Amino acid sequence: MTTTSIPAIATKRIAKSRISEVDFNNLEFGKYISDHMLMVDYVNGKWQEPSILPFGDIMMSPAMLSLHYGQSVFEGMKAFRNKNGDICIFRPQKHSERLNKSLARMCMPEIPEELFIQSLHAIVETDESWIPTSEGASLYIRPVVFAYEPRLGVKIADHFKFFVLTSPAGAYFSKPTRLKVEETFVRAAEGGTGFAKCAGNYGGAFYPTQVARQEGFDQVLWTDAKEHKYIDEAGVMNVMFVIDGKVITPKLTTALLDGVTRDTIIKLAPSLGMTVEERRVSVAEIEEAFKKGTLTEAFGAGTAAVVSPIAAINIHGVDYTVPTVTSNSFQQRAKEKLNNIRLGFEPDVHGWNYIIPAAR
Ligand SMILES: *Cc1c(COP(=O)(O)O)cnc(C)c1O
């Protein structure tokens, strides 16, 4: 999809760009925020006109409802400079759908897809000089919606803000991680908010993750809240396994985040000669596959790293080692294919790329 123009958005430009402060050869994830931000208010029962202004502090009341009762959701996505020099935003429709599911679950007003995508388009185009061009680099996009209304009583807010920030991100090579199957703490229970990208899910996951780190692991492998028998996710990523030559991943439930990377890899797998099973995956099955030697890959899937190889999984106190990733590994091939599609080296048959043509 190529879009040359969107309706004009009121823009207050920064007096002096901060871009010269950025070390593009050493981009620490999330460290630098681009010059501008886009803001939209929800008042009187509707989303108002967006505006673009210099990134900076905003005024808010200490009684703001999101601080007290947690109505706050976000998205995480990326834009690239493709091989033709055009800008590619990856799968904005899918992110829009997920954001609206998160908003609905948190009793927050949905954002029309058109407003969402035009907002992304406008802010990315405004700060297009911040899109890094080195291999594997991208402009990370962070949309957030939160309750802005000041009031102490427990209530659903009537005033919200939607803003979009961007941040240049370098190639992210995740070193293989050591995971622990979590059997004490829970990230999300069925019927809860696990499928929503809401701020509280992260706050609640910090402590179990900190405990796992103190025990020498990098992350936890979350299991279902009821029995701790079935695998949900790996830290803040979806999890995938290759067992007996098939890709196996937990099926979506209300306790799992519907990752765009997960969905993308599932859709790419057939073209890489792999079948995918989306179903319940028990800890016992993984343990047995390790013992039989049929588990050849385990990895996390998410926007930040695309794939993040898992080095070892600790099950009931026993460490099982995952074979090392090679250039022939499914995760490696999937990552390359995905990157090639985004950068325009392979055809975008699924219509995932939202292209903003370069000014010529
Ligand atoms: C964002 C997120 C993911 C990954 O989703 P992507 O759309 O692939 O980035 C997975 N799990 C959790 C809990 C998340 O918050």
Structure description:
With 360 residues, the chain is of the alpha+beta class. It has two domains: 10-171 and 350-356, 2-Layer Sandwich (D-amino Acid Aminotransferase, Chain A, domain 1); 177-325, Alpha-Beta Barrel (D-amino Acid Aminotransferase, Chain A, domain 2). Helices cover 23% and strands 29% of the residues. The strands form two sheets. Strands 1, 2, 3, 4, 5, 6, 7, 8, 9 and 19 form a ten-stranded mixed β-sheet that branches. Strands 10, 11, 12, 13, 14, 15, 16, 17 and 18 form a nine-stranded mixed β-sheet that branches. The chain is globular and about 60 Å long. Pyridoxal-5'-phosphate binds at residues 76, 197, 233, 236-238, 257, 259-262, 301-303.
What brief labels describe this structure?
360 residues, alpha+beta, D-amino Acid Aminotransferase, Chain A, domain 1, D-amino Acid Aminotransferase, Chain A, domain 2, 2 domains, ten-stranded mixed sheet, nine-stranded mixed sheet, 29% strand, globular, binds pyridoxal-5'-phosphate
The name of the CATH architecture of the largest domain is: 2-Layer Sandwich
The set of bound ligands, ions and cofactors reads: pyridoxal-5'-phosphate
CATH homologous superfamily assignment of the largest domain: Aminotransferase class 4, branched-chain amino acid transferase, N-terminal domain
Q: Secondary-structure element sequence? A: EEEEHEEEHHEEEHEEEEHEHEEEHE
**How many helices in DSSP terms?**
7
Which fold name fills CATH's third level, the topology of the largest domain? D-amino Acid Aminotransferase, Chain A, domain 1
Question: What count of structural domains?
Answer: 2
Q: Beta-sheet strand percentage?
A: 25-35%
Backbone structural class = alpha+beta
Overall pLDDT level = 96
InterPro entries: Aminotrans_IV, Aminotransferase-like, B_amino_transII, BCAT-like_C, BCAT-like_N, BCAT_family
Protein name: branched-chain-amino-acid transaminase
GO biological process, one term: isoleucine biosynthetic process
Keywords: Amino-acid biosynthesis, Aminotransferase, Branched-chain amino acid biosynthesis, Pyridoxal phosphate, Transferase
